Amino acid sequence: MKIAIGCDHAAFDEKNNLITYLENKNFLVKDFGCFSNDSVDYPDYARLVAKEIQNNNYDFGILICGSGIGISIAANRHRGIRAALCTSEFHAEMSRKHNDANIIALGARITPIDEMFSIISKFLDTEFEGGRHQNRIEKIEL
After folding, report:
1. pTM surpassing 0.70?
2. Which residue of the set 7, 65, 78, 91 is catalytic?
3. What's residue 141's pLDDT?
4. What is the CATH number of the domain that holds 125?
5. What is the domain range of residue 66?
6. Looking at the 3D structure of the chain, how many domains does it have?
């Protein structure tokens, strides 16, 4: 499975820890930045990851900022992107099962790194149920 990951300065350290975690689980991970703790604008990194998902270059995206809110809003501005801000395994599971989320967003200032590991694992291990949910997904794309 190929994963695109991006963050802003508030989540630089968490992003690096997540990359190591995912690579140790044999996922192919591409880092789209940011590449330091210097202040940057989260929409730039949301755009980079969203474009890669839109173009089917990666299976899933992971985006992280301070709260997870801004970066998820920025990603969802892109057609075909369903970025879900997840603060629990339940959110991650439902975002995949019912919403076919293709990007998970996390808040570095909200969610401890060990919880991020379990939330991301649940997200990546859960399949979309389709069925009645497919029609709802189609209604999102206006």
Report:
1. yes
2. 65
3. 81
4. 3.40.1400.10
5. 2-140
6. 1
